[in-house]
Write a structure and sequence with these properties.
Length: 294
């Protein structure tokens, strides 16, 4: 943690559209001082490489002052590799986010156009992985923003380059060997974010299933903290003990990490290779097909 960020107060993993609207209005009234302290990122994304996400989503309408964050550039999919979404190099991440006008004292708000199920929380996690905790996700995404009566724009904001010092946090990531060792030690509880049937078809032995759709209400907003806590309890997860999050390829697990953060457990690591890597590198007897837990 840098000296600058050490004095920044803790921020929530989620913010509401009402809160964000107020911040945008404050920035408009005092542009020079406020614009550098808040950066809104449109992370609208689909997995198909044939879709130009910036053109098809961001340019069609976005939250005023938002800048497009290209997840495909930062974490390009490796379709033939064990790890589908690799972690970017620290210097690359630093240069990329500086180009978006982000500095170490910037509060980042991430949202996406289609839903809040994957890209927003992956980006939220990446910033934390590189030592920047001043990051939140817009609860409900652009859909909730519009539902609450707020405007969108097609205007693109110009930004001055930021000064960002990326400090990689190795304690927030788990590789394949650490997951193999955990089978023997049982130090960390493994939570699997995949949908129940996919989980049943094969999972890391001993892992507990909290299907990522269960984290959300029907409108795409997060469930209440009490409801989230109940989901963890029902899955047999002890929030007072170490946890590591996994999924299919390292995306939806970030949703469970954010849910744990809402409940006060701030540093849940990600198994970035997740079950894609696990199934490719382990023998069949290391893949469990036991009954659903929770």
């Amino acid at each position: 943690m840098t000296e600058m960020s050490a004095n920044i107060p803790k921020v929530s993993a989620l913010v509401t559209s009402a809160w964000l609207k107020q911040q945008i209005q404050s920035a408009a009234q005092n542009f020079k001082s406020a614009s550098k302290s808040l950066r809104i990122l449109d992370s609208s994304w689909v997995s198909s490489s044939e879709v130009d996400c910036c053109k098809e989503f961001y340019q069609q309408g976005h939250i005023p002052t938002a800048i497009f964050f290209d997840l495909r550039t930062v974490c390009p999919a490796q379709h033939n590799a064990h790890i589908k979404y690799p972690i970017p190099d620290s210097n690359f991440f630093k240069e990329y986010v500086q180009g978006l006008g982000i500095s170490n004292d910037t509060h980042i708000i991430v949202y996406d156009r289609l839903n809040t199920y994957r890209p927003s929380f992956r980006i939220w996690f990446l910033f934390r992985l590189f030592g920047h905790n001043q990051v939140s996700v817009l609860d409900g995404g652009l859909k909730q923003w519009i539902k609450d009566g707020n405007d969108v724009t097609t205007e693109t904001s110009e930004v001055e380059p930021g000064v960002f010092n990326a400090q990689f946090q190795p304690h927030l990531i788990r590789d394949h060997m650490s997951m193999v060792k955990n089978i023997d030690t049982g130090v960390e509880q493994v939570i699997d974010a995949r949908k129940a049937q996919t989980y049943l078809d094969g999972h890391i032995p001993g892992s507990k299933n909290i299907a990522y759709p269960s984290i959300f209400n029907e409108d795409g907003t997060f469930r209440t903290p009490s409801e989230l806590r109940q989901l963890f309890v029902q899955a047999g997860v002890d929030l007072d003990s170490p946890i590591v999050a996994s999924c299919g390829g390292g995306m939806t697990a970030c949703i469970l990490i954010a849910a744990a953060h809402v409940l006060g457990k701030e540093d849940v690591p990600l198994h970035n290779g997740s079950f894609r890597e696990w199934s490719a590198l382990t023998t069949p007897n290391m893949i469990s097909h036991s009954e659903f837990q929770g």
